[in-house]
Design brief:
Oligomer: heterodimer
Strand content of chain A: 25-35%
Radius of gyration of chain B: 20 Å
Strand order of the largest sheet of chain B: 3-4-2-5
CATH superfamily of the largest domain in chain B: Lrp/AsnC effector binding domain/regulation of amino acid metabolism (RAM) domain
Number of helices of chain A: 5
Radius of gyration of chain A: 21 Å
Structural class of chain A: alpha+beta
Largest sheet of chain A: 4 strands, antiparallel
C-alpha cells in the first residue's frame, strides 16, 4: 500500500428535534407516502409538516427523493461487485480508473475506499455470458488495475440504507 | 420481460433524478398529457421497473460521518447458521444494507457510524458478537457515486 491517511473534517451537525426525527424516520421507511398521509401518521397538521419539510430541505439535510430502478425486471439478472486494487505507483491511477469506469454503462456504483480495496464497482449484466463480455471487453481494459476480485450477488437481505435516527 | 420505448426511458431517467416530479411537469418534457404520463408511470411501477423510492439525506449533516463496508466470512456454515446470522444482523440499526454474496466473503454489509470510535463500538459489540462470524474485513468509504445505469 503506497499511502494511507485519514482526514477528519469537523462538520457542523444539524440538530434534529423530536418532530424532525419522527418525520425522517417515517419518510425513510415509506418515502412514497403523501404529505397528508404522513401528517396523519405522525399526528401533526399538514401545514406544520410542510413548514418542517421546507426547513429540512433548506438546511440541506433532505436532498430529495429518487426512484429506484428494478434492474431485475428490465432483464438484468446478474449483479457483480468488483473489488479493485490499483497500481498506486501511478499518480493518476484513481482519476484515470474512475474516468474509465464512468464510460461503462453497466456500472451502477463507483466507490473509493481506505483499506485493502481501493475502488469498488457495482456492475449489472443480463446473464453470465453478457457479464463475461463486459468483463473482458470493458473492465479488463481499464487503466492501472493491479488486482481484481469479484463477489457475485446472491440476494439482498436488507437494502433500505436507512440512517439510525 | 418488459419493453420500454424512448419515452418510458426518458420518464424513468427523470424520476431517478427526482421521484417527486409530478405527472404534469414530466409530461410536458415529452409532449404527453398528464393522464397519459401518469398511466406510463403507473405501468413502470406495476411491472417493477420502478421498484420504490429512496429518500436522499445528507448523512454528514445528520452526524453520520463514517461509512464502512464489511466483508464477512462465516466460521460455520449450514442452513441454520445463515438464518441465525441474517436475523441477528438485520436487527442492528447501524447496518444499512446486507448482501448475501458468492466469492471470498459470504456477506457484505454497509455500516454507518458517527465517527471512528462509534464504528469501533458497533464492530466490537454488535458485529463481532453475531452468531457464526468468522473473518471480517473492513474498508472505510471515502467517496461514492451512483451512475444512471444502462437506460
Amino acid at each position: 500500500m503506497g499511502f494511507s491517511f485519514l482526514i477528519i473534517v469537523v462538520n457542523e451537525v444539524f440538530m434534529l428535534d423530536d418532530l424532525d426525527r419522527r418525520i425522517l424516520r417515517h419518510m425513510q421507511a415509506t418515502p412514497e407516502k403523501s404529505i397528508p398521509d404522513l401528517a396523519d401518521a405522525i399526528r401533526v397538521t399538514t401545514s406544520r409538516l410542510t413548514r418542517r419539510l421546507e426547513k429540512l430541505k433548506e438546511s440541506g439535510v433532505m436532498r430529495g427523493q429518487c426512484a429506484k430502478v428494478g434492474w431485475h425486471n428490465l432483464g438484468y439478472a446478474v449483479e457483480v461487485s468488483l473489488r479493485v486494487t490499483l497500481d498506486k505507483t501511478q499518480s493518476r491511477a484513481f482519476d484515470d480508473f474512475i474516468a474509465a469506469a464512468r464510460e461503462i454503462p453497466e456500472v451502477l456504483e463507483i466507490q473509493t475506499f481506505l483499506g485493502q480495496v481501493d475502488v469498488r464497482l457495482s456492475i449489472i449484466a443480463k446473464d453470465m455470458e453478457h457479464y463475461q463480455e463486459i468483463y473482458r471487453a470493458k473492465v479488463l481494459t481499464m487503466p492501472h488495475i493491479a488486482d481484481i476480485e469479484a463477489l457475485m450477488l446472491v440476494a439482498r437481505i436488507k437494502s433500505d440504507e436507512s440512517l439510525p435516527l | 420481460m418488459i419493453d420500454l420505448d424512448e419515452i418510458d426511458r426518458g420518464i424513468l431517467k427523470a424520476l431517478v433524478e427526482d421521484a417527486t416530479c409530478n405527472a404534469g411537469t414530466l409530461g410536458r418534457q415529452f409532449g404527453l398529457s398528464q393522464p397519459a404520463t401518469w398511466r406510463r408511470v403507473r405501468r413502470l411501477q406495476q411491472v417493477g421497473v420502478i421498484s420504490g423510492r429512496r429518500l436522499e439525506l445528507d448523512k454528514v449533516k445528520l452526524g453520520f460521518g463514517v461509512t464502512v463496508f464489511l466483508g464477512i466470512k462465516l466460521a460455520t456454515k449450514g442452513r441454520i447458521s445463515l438464518d441465525d446470522f441474517e436475523r441477528a444482523v438485520m436487527a442492528i440499526p447501524e447496518v444499512q444494507t446486507v448482501e448475501h454474496v458468492l466469492g471470498m466473503y459470504d456477506y457484505r454489509l454497509r455500516v454507518t457510524a458517527r465517527d471512528i470510535p462509534d464504528f469501533e463500538r458497533v464492530l466490537r459489540r454488535r458485529i463481532m458478537t453475531l452468531p457464526g462470524v468468522g473473518n471480517v474485513e473492513a474498508n472505510v468509504l471515502l467517496s461514492e457515486e451512483r451512475r444512471p445505469g444502462p437506460l
